[in-house]
Amino acid sequence: MVNIKRSSPYIPIIALISILLLFSVYGLSLAKENPGQLIPQSFSQLAEKARPGVVNIRTVKTIKGGGRVFRHFFGNPFGQRDPFRDFFGPPSEREPQRDFKQRSLGSGFIIDREGYIVTNNHVIEDADQIKVKLFNDKEFDAELVGRDPNTDLALIKIKDSGKLSPLAMGDSESLEVGTWVVAIGSPFGLEQTVTAGIVSAKGRIIGSGPYDDFIQTDASINPGNSGGPLLNMNGEVVGINTAIVASGQGIGFAIPINLAKGVLAQLKSKGEVTRGWLGVGIQDLTPELAEYYGVKEKEGVLVTQVFEGDPADKGGIKPNDIITSVNGQSVKSARDLSSVIANIGVEKRISITLLRNGRKKSVTIETAKRQDDRLIARQQTQEPTGEFGLGLRTLDPETARRLGFGADEKGVLITGVKPDSKASSIGFQQGDLIKEINRTPVNSVPDFRKQMDKIKQGKDVRMLLKRGQTGFVAMTFTK
To answer: Which of 226, 325, 339, 444 is catalytic?
Structure first.
């Protein structure tokens, strides 16, 4: 008979308690070493410290023709048949077009004791009146110092405000995905609202402008939060809350504070932002284009257009060149190149390395001032050329947004159709977006030319286009 000695029932309990104590001590040491890596017990101290630097912004702007606006939203109380119309004629012929006062809400934050406040351009754009309300309910009239629509940033100022509590600027470059952040603002007019979340992603491009480089966060951001600060766990501003995804949840976007610093400095000193300009149309180098042009590294930016008389033209850059670096700094995308040139400034001599027909070449160029109005005008007045009589341009995010396409839309935009040309007789229209040729996607003008060159004379060409509200349109013709 074998005797089995059972262990004491208290031993497992003692062992479990020891393990729990060990993990708790280890967890506390981790929290001390990495305070931003674990879930904070409370955001109250951070919020209490930051709130005095966050403001509520209220604006009033005048919209001409308030009568039509009123009818659009409230309609006709008599339905389709209006008894007054029978006696007095159409309303548009007799009703004066009254002005309509539109009120909007936003947020902002104080950056120094002189009264300078940062917000979004879309919060104060075209405003007749700007009111700033501090955390202690004191209200002030604000004046516009300067604004930059390209980055959606604006600087305003209040006077005789007494003692202010500016927020400290942080470093958005050192911000890591997964770290905790806090947003403070006035969503739906609810002032001094604090929400928390993590950094979901960095470097997001959402098609809002040429310098997109957003921080994505799941901290709750809603209408009215625009212009408010996104803070790290030290209470420093790392972003400026700017955009949300319509009907989305847990997705908000903030402008990195490092991008904003240079813009705000120029707005404060000059009231405007000046950026360097080459005078080229550019696009990303896709793997297919890299193969087509014989680029092994698959890095660089394709020049699709050179504006006559601008710096690139004077410096010898040509269409189909591939720019690989500026002043020794590699450029991997069109966004990289735009950002580098913009930050270099105006009337600066720069060295550009490029590939032309597979050969490396260097040119020296003096930058000019970027003028967006002139750029848009040039883009819109290209003459229709080519054997079919089509004016073509690679669709870029800014143009896509302006024309109502999605931010990620790709294709070749028809900018003009020559009268009495073959293109006109086939049925092409200005504003059509060419998506495919013979079932092959075309994302750029070089793509278009490459596919058309493959088709021999007398053979059929099948194109898939996207046309405004009509949707997709298929066309077949003989080359």
So the answer is: 226
What rounded mean pLDDT belongs to the chain? 80
Q: Which of 201, 267, 213 is nearest to 242 (CA)?
A: 213
pTM score > 0.85 for this model?
no
* Max CA distance (Å), the chain: 117
Cα separation of 384 and 416, whole Å?
5
Cβ burial, residue 263 (10 Å; 0-12/13-18/19+): buried
C-alpha closest to that of 361 among 318, 306, 304, 314: 318
* Domains of the chain, first to last: 44-64+99-271 (2.40.10.120), 276-372 (2.30.42.10), 382-478 (2.30.42.10)
Catalytic residue among 107, 148, 152, 208: 152
- pLDDT value of residue 372: 56
CA distance 123 to 106: 6
pLDDT of residue 378: 46
Q: Specify which of 62-66, 79-83, 379-383 reaches the highest per-range mean pLDDT.
A: 62-66
Q: Give the pLDDT of residue 72.
A: 39
Q: What pLDDT, on the 0 to 100 scale, is given for residue 307?
A: 83
User: Rounded to an integer, what distance in angstroms lies between the CA atom of residue 244 and that of residue 234?
Assistant: 25
Is 213 a catalytic site residue? no
CA–CA distance, 224 with 252 (Å, rounded to integer): 13
Task: Report d(CA 224, CA 287) in Å as an integer.
Answer: 42
Q: Which helix (H) or strand (E) holds 254?
A: strand 252-256
> Which pair of tokens denotes residue 322?
């591939």
Determine the average pLDDT of the residues in 54-59: 96
With a CB cutoff of 8 Å and minimum separation 6, the contacts of 22 are none
Q: Which of 107, 122, 208, 447 is catalytic?
A: 122
Mean pLDDT to the nearest integer, 107-131? 95
Q: H or E element: which one contains 237?
A: strand 237-244
Contact yes or no for 195/219 (Cβ under 8 A): yes
226 is catalytic: yes
Quick check: 255 pLDDT over 90? yes
Q: Is the pLDDT of residue 386 over 60?
A: no
C-alpha closest to that of 322 among 289, 364, 344 = 289
For 107-129, what is the mean pLDDT? Answer: 94
- Whether 373 and 260 have beta carbons less than 8 Å apart is answered as no
Q: How far apart are CA 233 and CA 116, in angstroms?
A: 24
How many angstroms separate the first and last alpha carbons of the chain? 100
